[in-house]
Design brief:
4 strands, about 80 residues, about 15% helix, 4-stranded antiparallel β-sheet, alpha+beta, about 40% strand, elongated
Length: about 80
């Protein structure tokens, strides 16, 4: 079996969502992205570094794993998102 694919920093974006901050897990294999939707609500997205298909596609990729709810304030969205790490 060949070596695992090279790790890449998360560079994804979401439509109608302005990123405010992001935080990686200690392993760097999960990232929580916290931001504000165009309607003013705060939310988050969680992505995981996925190498399950690297033998077939030749690389790893950031796989979307969770979407947060809608929050009235940034602190609530941040707290909930960081629990996922």
């Amino acid at each position: 079996m060949a070596e695992a694919p090279e790790y890449r920093e998360f560079t994804g974006i979401q439509e109608e969502f302005e990123e405010i901050e992001r935080k990686y897990s200690d392993s760097k294999k999960t990232v929580a992205v916290v931001g504000q939707r165009t309607d003013g609500a705060y939310t988050y997205f969680v992505y995981k570094w996925d190498i399950t298909d690297w033998e077939y596609i030749g690389e790893g990729y950031w796989s979307h794993s969770e979407i947060g709810g809608f929050f009235q304030d940034l602190d609530s969205a941040r707290t909930e998102a960081y629990l996922k790490l």
